[in-house]
Write a structure and sequence with these properties.
Elements: H1 2-19, H2 43-46, E1 54-60, H3 67-81, E2 90-96, E3 107-115, H4 118-127, H5 144-156, E4 165-171, H6 189-206, E5 209-215, H7 222-231, E6 248-249, H8 255-266, E7 270-273, E8 282-288, E9 292-300, E10 307-311, E11 321-324, E12 327-332, E13 338-344, E14 349-356, E15 367-375, E16 377-383, E17 392-400, E18 417-424, E19 427-433, E20 449-455, E21 463-472, E22 475-485, E23 493-498, E24 502-504, E25 509-518, E26 524-531, E27 538-541, E28 544-547, E29 552-561, H9 564-567, E30 576-586, E31 592-603, H10 609-612, H11 614-642, E32 648-653, E33 658-663, E34 672-677, E35 684-687, E36 693-697, E37 704-708, E38 712-716, E39 721-723, E40 728-732, H12 758-767, H13 769-772
Parallel strand pairs: 1-2, 1-4, 4-5, 5-6, 15-22, 24-31
Antiparallel strand pairs: 2-3, 7-15, 8-14, 9-13, 9-15, 10-14, 11-12, 12-13, 16-17, 17-20, 18-19, 18-21, 21-22, 23-25, 25-29, 26-28, 26-30, 27-29, 30-31, 32-33, 32-40, 34-35, 34-36, 36-37, 37-38, 39-40
Helix pairs in contact: 1-3, 1-8, 5-6
């Protein structure tokens, strides 16, 4: 038993560092969500940076939990309580067991209601240490009804009912009120305790208090924890299973991530884990969604001596306090084991977290995660906008960021629920199933557009309205609607808009065609506009078109993209997708909407000189390379044509007697330089650099060219001769240069050089041909 307990204590001790990750709640400023139907503006303009949350932490001090379990509860309570949701948030911490005799109490107040500003965090961190396991004289049972009533009181007394109320219940789930006189006759105390628990949970539900039980111990009673979670307030910030209170068993080796998951679920936040932990020095990467309006990068450093530096997706080091570009930053817990960098309006993309530490502090791994809350918007269209009774209408809800940018990755809206209803005069409301699965009315799966269809009932007459609500954990719910009218027969003006999806740069224009047909005898004025998008990103022109009576034809419509400065850092290297709606309304016919056409424009940064003319640059480079190769080949050809290698030079006497022969080598710059040795006794040709004579081949025809030092050049014809000295002539003998395909052919292994011919053998004694033929 001691061995098992010791192991558990070790696990909990190591896990306490990870538990601090609940400090990530510190980051989470966005726990309050916009009400349904809210049309969100940019977060920095209208939303407080860190909305307040009220929560209480109840810690089981009963005898059913071992000392190691109590230690773990205290660590978890401290980390939850220190979760700085905002400096305006408040927390209460208390222990509980049971009052089993006079002088005992079921609840031990530990931390009174405390604001979580800098001073408050220090106060709470200190008072949590007062939690302790009960002795027999203090009452060792487990009184859940009293604990829940205390939590409800602390969360409702003098608090703002519009702020979330969350009770974390840390226990093993075993209620024990058998020795508590307050529950009446001993034979009926368990039944009375069960009845009182139901009443306490009903009170929590009525007061909008969520109950989140955390199971501790070897075998927590999960069915009882599940009952308490279900008995409290169920309607959290969003109506999704992931945001519904439920029990969690807390494992010592995973306490940090478990608490982060619970904290995120309780406050409708997104929790995303980073890569595998790594010891310093290291750099870890983690993504922040484009939907995030406020978030926190939480770093479990393992060792307080570890220093953390943060870099945004553009590679820029960001401050830990203050503002940078459009974002604001605040670091919490920088001197502790866990720190959290809170960011309002974070730049979406891949962030880098660099961990460094001095020698002796690099053994423990560093882990990174992100908690965030964001806003999700939708743009709704009904096609056709003014259907006739019996027509089928297609309803599309396209997802957008709060600034109107189209969402790139389906993971950003994982768990999304879309509900839509068609209402109008003359028929009961119709529920529509909108899906993004590429089936039925939905053309493309996982593209962020949810589509469904319905048929307008035959009895419909007058006004129509279609509405859709987007709901996802961590994202504020958004309801969009479009009104229309059942068309009474043929409309006087009909239109059709063709706007192609386009990839453009800031300042560019996209041109489409508006087909118009005016069947009436009166002029009609149409109004064009771009909606469902942050003003200024896209504009349409002309904004008004006047149709003559009976006019039928087409008009050009231009959509212009805003300059680059409007997009700022959000444009990035990959660009953005703008998902707006172009509307065309007939102002002459009661402002009737004729067209609501989805508009998708991908905006990428305008390329630099290299990107714009890259093909031309590459083409020019290729041409230069080709010219260089041609020039090199031409040079090689000229050199080969002049190369004297293989020429047989012969000395001829005045009477025509052949006196000596010599085979020329490659020479120097295509000139083979030589002299005549012993010209008057035993004349012979010898190679001599800078000698009085030099020969090279004639590139314009056969033969060779003789160059005399200071005496000009003379053409030597094939099998002809020219004067060399007063008594000697120079003639050309047999050309011994091998054909091109035979040149430089390697000899087979073990073979010997071919024997010289009689002519070359006769010359070898006087010329040293082998030595000269390789000269260059």
């Amino acid at each position: 038993m001691e061995t098992v307990t010791g192991r558990r204590q070790a696990l909990w001790g190591g896990a306490r560092r990870a538990a601090v990750a609940v400090l990530a709640g510190a980051a989470l400023s966005g726990a309050l969500l916009a009400p349904p139907g809210h049309d969100p503006a940019p977060a920095a303009d209208t939303r407080p940076a860190f909305p307040a949350v009220n929560y209480a932490v109840a810690v089981d001090e009963s005898a059913s939990l071992a000392a190691a379990d109590m230690k773990a509860e205290k660590a978890a309570a401290a980390r939850i309580a220190l979760g700085d949701v905002s400096s305006q948030s408040h927390v209460t911490v208390f222990g509980f067991a049971a009052a089993e005799s006079d002088g005992q109490r079921a609840v031990d107040p530990v931390c009174p209601r405390t604001a979580l500003d800098a001073a408050g965090r220090d106060t709470v961190g200190a008072c949590v240490t007062k939690l302790r396991s009960r002795s027999r004289s203090q009452g060792t049972g487990t009184d859940f009804p009293s604990a829940i009533r205390q939590g409800v009181h602390d969360l409702t007394d003098g608090t703002d009912p519009s702020q979330p109320r969350v009770l974390f219940l840390l226990t093993d789930g075993y209620m024990d009120v058998g020795d508590s006189p307050k529950y009446g006759d001993p034979a009926h105390r368990d039944a009375e305790g069960d009845r009182q628990l139901g009443l306490a949970l009903k009170e929590a539900r009525n007061e909008h208090v969520q109950v989140w039980p955390l199971g501790f111990g070897d075998q927590p009673r999960m069915d009882e924890l599940r009952r308490m979670a279900a008995g409290g307030y169920q309607k959290g910030c969003v109506d999704l299973p992931s945001a519904t209170p439920g029990p969690r068993k807390v494992e010592p080796e995973a306490i940090g991530t478990t608490l982060e998951d619970i904290f995120a679920a309780a406050h409708c936040l997104r929790h995303e884990r980073g890569p595998a932990p790594a010891p310093p020095p290291s750099t870890q990467e983690i993504d922040i969604s484009p939907l995030a309006t406020v978030g926190s990068i939480v770093v479990d450093k393992g060792d307080p001596a570890v220093e953390i530096t943060y870099y945004d997706p553009k590679g820029q080091k960001v401050p830990t306090h203050g503002t940078y570009h459009k974002s604001s930053f605040e670091l919490a817990g920088g001197s502790g084991v866990v720190e959290a960098l809170k960011i309002v309006d974070p730049l979406p993309g891949r962030w880098k977290v660099k961990a460094e530490a001095p020698e002796g502090h690099r053994s423990l791994p560093v882990s990174v995660s992100v908690l965030w809350q964001g806003e999700l918007r939708g743009a709704i269209t009904m096609d056709p906008p003014s259907p006739q009774a019996g027509d089928e209408v297609t309803v599309t809800m396209r997802l957008q960021t709060r600034e109107g940018y189209q969402i790139k990755h389906p993971r950003d809206y994982a768990g999304l629920r879309v509900r839509s209803t068609l209402t109008g005069d003359g028929f009961a409301p119709l529920n529509l199933d909108l899906a993004d699965d590429g089936k039925a009315a939905d053309p493309t799966a996982s593209d962020g557009s949810f589509t469904g269809s319905a048929r307008v009932p035959k009895g419909a007459d007058g006004a129509l309205k279609v509405s859709a609500t987007l709901t996802a954990a961590g994202l504020s719910a958004d309801t969009r609607s479009e009104t229309g009218e059942v068309a009474p027969g043929q409309l006087p003006v009909t239109t059709s808009l063709d706007l192609p999806a386009a990839g453009v740069h800031p300042g560019d224009k996209v041109t489409g065609t508006l087909a118009v047909h005016n069947t009436s005898r009166a002029a009609h004025t149409l109004r064009l506009a771009v909606t469902d998008l942050q003003p200024g990103l896209l504009s349409v022109g002309p904004t008004r078109i006047t149709l003559a009576p009976g006019e039928s034809g087409t008009r050009k419509v231009t959509v212009e993209v805003a300059p680059a400065g409007v997009f700022g850092d959000r444009l990035g290297h990959d660009g953005l997708k703008l998902a707006g709606t172009v509307t065309v309304a007939d102002t002459t016919d009661h402002d009737r909407t004729l067209v609501r056409a989805p508009l998708s424009v991908r905006v990428t940064p305008r390329p630099g000189i290299w990107d714009q003319y890259k093909l031309y640059f590459l083409g020019a480079a290729a041409l230069l390379v080709a010219l260089a190769l041609v020039a090199a080949a031409w040079t090689r050809q000229r050199r080969r044509a002049r190369d004297p290698y293989g020429l047989t030079l012969q000395l001829v006497a005045e009477d025509g007697t052949l006196l000596a022969g010599h085979q020329a080598g490659h020479g120097h710059k295509q000139w083979y330089e030589f002299t005549v040795a012993e010209a008057h006794r035993s004349p012979r040709i010898e190679r001599r650099p800078q000698g009085p004579y030099a020969v090279q081949r004639n590139p314009k025809g056969g033969g060779a060219v003789l160059r005399r030092k200071g005496g000009g050049r003379t053409l030597i014809p094939v099998r002809g001769q020219v004067p060399l000295t007063e008594t000697l002539q120079l003639a050309l003998g047999e050309d011994r240069r091998p054909p091109k395909k035979q040149r430089n052919r390697p000899q087979p292994p073990g073979s010997r050089p071919a024997p010289p011919t009689a002519d070359s053998a006769g010359m070898s004694g006087t010329t040293g041909t082998g030595a000269y033929s390789s000269y260059e």
